[in-house]
């Protein structure tokens, strides 16, 4: 596998360290919650290159190194998917973000997922420090409108597609039909388990009378 | 004397390590009496001390910060450790080590050159560093520290200026605690012929011009380019570290081998 030059990895870890610490400085609540997790070591595995980074919280500062040291939680994904996780937040409740595999202590994973889910980075404030209040507000408003439009377009497309697949083509069942079917499956599963338990009980009784 | 832009083999007699028996050693491509090298190197650094940081950023296009970052990462330095930063100059590594060792740890910034040490001390004090840093003017060949004293010793871009490198490595070995780590960050030999040509062209044309324009001193930067070519390559330095008593000696080539980070452990 391709082994990146240490200079490149150092550049990556330095940039990421700067970006993450700047982002967390814009959401102090998340930094406090992260600190409450204690001495947590998070590993980042960047695919498809063989690059590993280790993140540790040290006195309110995230230190990122290129060393392959033991970690409590590991996030694996492409730089793009990991970047989207940071800037867009998680898009599902089950995993943190599509394209990001997460492993480690389940309690710490859930706590970290909750922190990432609740990230509220005040990008407008950061932009205002560079551009001034008025341009920052103008750009942030445009950005929010663009995001709203994108969200609306996405929902609208999903609904249209759902309508077509269910109503027009009849390829997919309605939610009620699906719920009825799932309940039937649950009932069969429950009955099967009860039957299995009854058979085992009878078997045990037969074994006992024979001896 | 070799011409700029060409590779010159190590002088045969002292193996570039300034053996006193040979009476001469290299200073760039020139042979000078052993006793003179320290003085000549001192003149170079007295001359460039004030513009040292700016020139480093210009010459390396800022990449020297990444090389040093990787060095600190590999050091394994933790809270309460004692660290010796030899040829620490303007204190880039010392600052990072100081953050890592915390208030109970110690970092010693050592440099043979008073001008460099003064610039480094002023810079660190201006940035609010001080409680866990000591400043010592010291020759790497005769370190004024007790045996088995430090958890980590680093020397970044300094070893090639030392007259007797073998003696310096033995001294670093002596002051390290058993299990302590030596880190040598130094210019080395690029591992790609094309990169080597581009690098030679850059070193012998652009560097002296930059030195003249920024620091008002082209000779010092001519010396820099020459001294890099006279420095032992990756494998030779690794062997020298083993001979000085270090184990687990290894190196990481960085930026195509322009710089190499050697590490070794005192058993």
What are the main properties of this structure?
heterodimer; A: 211 residues; alpha+beta; five-stranded mixed sheet; 7 helices; 63% helix; extended; B: 267 residues; alpha/beta; seven-stranded mixed sheet; two-stranded antiparallel ribbon; 9 helices; disordered N terminus
How is the secondary structure organized here?
The complex is a heterodimer of chains A (211) and B (267).
Chain A: H1 6-25, H2 28-36, E1 41-46, E2 51-58, E3 61-65, E4 73-77, H3 79-88, E5 101-104, H4 106-117, H5 123-131, H6 133-168, H7 175-210
Parallel strand pairs in A: 1-4
Antiparallel strand pairs in A: 1-2, 2-3, 4-5
Helix pairs in contact in A: 5-6
Chain B: E1 24-27, E2 30-33, H1 34-48, H2 52-60, H3 63-75, E3 82-86, H4 92-101, E4 106-111, H5 114-126, E5 133-137, E6 150-156, H6 165-175, E7 176-187, H7 193-215, H8 218-230, H9 234-243, E8 247-254, E9 259-265
Parallel strand pairs in B: 3-4, 3-6, 4-5, 6-7
Antiparallel strand pairs in B: 1-2, 7-9, 8-9
Describe the protein in words.
The complex is a heterodimer of chains A (211) and B (267). In chain A, strands 3-2-1-4-5 form a five-stranded mixed beta sheet. In chain A, 63% of the residues lie in helices and 13% in strands. Chain A has 211 residues and is of the alpha+beta class. In chain A, helix 5 packs antiparallel against helix 6. Chain A is built from seven helices and five strands; from the N terminus they run ααββββαβαααα. Chain B is an alpha/beta fold and 267 residues long. Helices cover 44% and strands 22% of the residues of chain B. A seven-stranded mixed beta sheet of chain B has the order 5-4-3-6-7-9-8, with helices on both faces. In chain B, strands 1-2 form a two-stranded antiparallel ribbon. In chain B, helix 3 packs parallel to helix 4 and helix 7 runs antiparallel to helix 8. The N terminus of chain B is likely disordered. The interface between A and B is medium-sized, with 11 and 14 residues.
